Known about the structure:
The chain is of the alpha/beta class. The protein has one domain (3-153, 177-208, 260-271): Vaccinia Virus protein VP39 (Rossmann fold, 3-Layer(aba) Sandwich). Helices cover 43% and strands 19% of the residues. It is built from 11 helices and 7 strands. It has helices at residues 10-24, 30-40, 57-65, 77-89, 101-107, 127-130, 156-169, 182-191, 211-220, 227-230, 234-252, and strands spanning 48-51, 70-73, 94-97, 115-119, 144-150, 194-208, 258-271.
Amino acid sequence: MSVTQVSSSIPHIYDAIAEQYDDHWTRHVQTQHARLTADLELRSGERLVDIAAGAGVTVEMLRHTHPAPGVAVDPSSAMLEKARQRAAREGFALTGLCTTAQEFLRDCDEQSFDVLSLRFGLAYVDWERDLPTLAKPVRKGSGRIGLLTNLATSAPQALRTYHAFMDELGMEKAWPPVPRDTAQIASLLEAGGVEVVSQWSERVRIWFDNGMLAADWLTQSGYIASKALDEFPPELLAMLKPVFAKKLEDDYAVDGRVPFDFDIGGVVGVRR
């Protein structure tokens, strides 16, 4: 799936799931978040911007950069409000900017931050175009960039099942709008003057008690948000969902439970 297929309803989707987002997704990738934060080597007094900030990971980084203020960028006002509330409870200064990553990168002042973080947001930008420009907000010589993302090989159980349905229905298939590996990310960052100092990938498995819970998770977590889904007739989606769930169980269940495997990539670089 190309970025042109990303849904224009993204802010509304994430406004609706803000309360359950961390439970549905973030808690499963805490280890990977912590690894990226450690790789960034955050220091007190550094100015931080977190793009596609979500509801709370920014606060984990502010624990290291306090007392310097942080900036959280996200198109979902509900996500930003949760992040601001969490920061306030811990006494951190956090400014929320309700805008897209593209708009922020276009309008931000050059070299105005020490650290830029972008976690699980590449699906919602034109990453092949935007990654070489990601260094713009950070200082030359010492400014760091940290990216965390699911890779295109993620959730093959769901993707193969979905593609089989699209083939049977004669409908156009969507593809994961994210890089295939960290080398692809590193190459694009280096094209923008970033020296990559760390890159890695890890697999995370999430288990569901049955196929229907797995199918529900795909939409309730925000993992699927594309025009392909928007344009899918709702009545057909409702009819096929139990069939989709059953096929997940038939093809992938282990002792009655359905797994989804996610390949998570982390990359850290320094602007030269």
